[in-house]
Design brief:
This protein is mainly alpha-helical. The chain contains eight helices and no strands.
């Protein structure tokens, strides 16, 4: 019985490592607080809560896929691991390199890959695929927030968003 939960612990560990690695790319006050942000920008605690929910549901989705025992579960989990790697890359590009334009492109790739992951999960566990919906929703929200930051701070759509 306990052996059933070992994979869950492993998936929770993977999302925790991903979160810790991503949070290591701090923007620094000089970058983050000097950026122009829209008035509808969420408070900092919201991001912590959203990422926590997303990472927990991602781990549960992977676990539900894994416990099916199906031979193709490894391929489905590969999509999931790639999403974790892309999450870390997004943090590195947006916060570490200060490149909101490139991170917008990366978020687009992440949204597409999350659909591939959900499709692979759905073949094994409908519940697992549905558990990936918060991730997809969050990536779409981040895409919009990222677009706003890029546009407010020198992106090509700046004239539409920012009028001094």
């Amino acid at each position: 019985m306990i052996a059933r939960y070992v994979p869950l612990a492993a998936f929770l560990l993977l999302v925790t490592l991903s979160s810790l690695t991503g949070s290591g790319f701090e923007a620094g006050e000089w970058y983050y607080f000097t950026m122009r942000q829209p008035s509808w920008w969420p408070p900092g605690w919201f991001f912590v809560l959203a990422w926590t929910v997303v990472y927990i549901t991602m781990a549960l989705a992977a676990w539900n896929t894994w416990i099916t025992g199906h031979y193709s579960r490894t391929g489905a989990i590969t999509w999931w691991v790639l999403l974790l790697v892309l999450n870390v890359c997004w943090f590195a590009v947006f916060f570490g390199l200060h490149r909101p334009g490139y991170s917008l492109l990366l978020l687009s790739v992440m949204a597409g890959m999350s659909l591939f992951c959900m499709r692979a999960f759905s073949k094994l566990s409908r519940q697992a695929a549905l558990m990936m919906l918060p991730y997809l929703f969050w990536i779409i929200c981040l895409w919009l927030l990222n677009l706003a930051i890029w546009s407010y701070n020198g992106g090509p759509l700046e004239p539409l968003f920012w009028k001094p």
